[in-house]
Structures are given as C-alpha cells and as structure tokens.
Amino acid sequence: MPVRVQAEPFDAGAELNAFSAGRTDVGAVVSFTGVVRDTDGNLTEMVIEHYPGMTEKAIGGMVDEATKRWALADALVIHRHGPLRPGEPIMMVATAAAHRAAAFAAADFLMDYLKSRAPFWKKEVTGKGADWVVAKDADEDSLKRW
What we know:
The chain is of the alpha+beta class and 146 residues long. It has 4 helices and 8 strands. Strand 7 and strand 8 form a beta hairpin.
C-alpha cells in the first residue's frame, strides 16, 4: 500500500491506471485528486513543508487504519511538497475494495485525515506576501464522523 511524498508532479490518470491494472479481486476502485486552489485570484504559489520520514510514517498509519476498518485490498496515497502553482495536483488517494461503499468511505476517511492530521505545513504566497494556512473548523468537524 504505497505512500509517496514527493516534490515531482504526478499524472493522476496514469497513477490510477497503474493502481487498478489487472485487478480482478475487487469490485470498486475510488480515487480523488486534490489541486491547488486559488480562491481569489491572488495566489502565486502554495509552499508545502514536511519532515521526511515522519510524514510518510504518519500517513502509513492512516492507511493501515483505513485498510483494517474497510477491508481494503489496496490503497495509494501521493502527496506533494515544495512550491506548487494554482491548478497543479497536490495529492491523490486511491482505494480498492470488494464493494463501493468501503472504497468510498476509506477514501473519504483518508482525505479527511490528510487534510487535518498529516504533518504538512502550508504557506500561501501572493503578491502581498506569504501567510501560513491555519486549520479550518470545517476540516476539524469532518474528522468527527470517524
């Protein structure tokens, strides 16, 4: 169950094709790709920082929990770090399970935990300067479902 934290761009379609290629043991594959959002048209870049080793271990623990809770056959998490421009893929989650409900729930769980608990620090850079992104109440509220 691969977890990749990388600076390099990735092709979500190619990643999904490779993840699901030859799978005859599952009935559902679910994927989500997050992109850098520029809500007000002023974002120059999003800079994502992390601690190598610690980040992969934390995400791996989330994947292990999702695998046990929903009996996943497989999961993939890719998350980028470094400077990213608006519209670029920032992360991807894919899950494979016998049934769609499990694949959807596990993917949703992983996305919520990546957003709120994975050890990444995000800084938004605009023409006016840079600000660290603070946690949102809505993101914390999403975790209460699990």
